[in-house]
Fold:
Amino acid sequence: MMSPVEFFKTLPKKVCPECGQHVEEQAESYLMECERCLSKKME
Structure:
């Protein structure tokens, strides 16, 4: 059985569905878009 730490290390990086860039993940964040795409939506 895989340890929880190993499980999370093997997950693929989150990718922005808008532009395809890798999203810098933060603890307790459920955002799917990258900062650039989020800022465009706010305008």
Q: What stands out?
A: Residues 35-42 form the longest helix (8 residues). The chain has a mean pLDDT of 86. The radius of gyration is 13 Å. The chain has two helices and no strands.
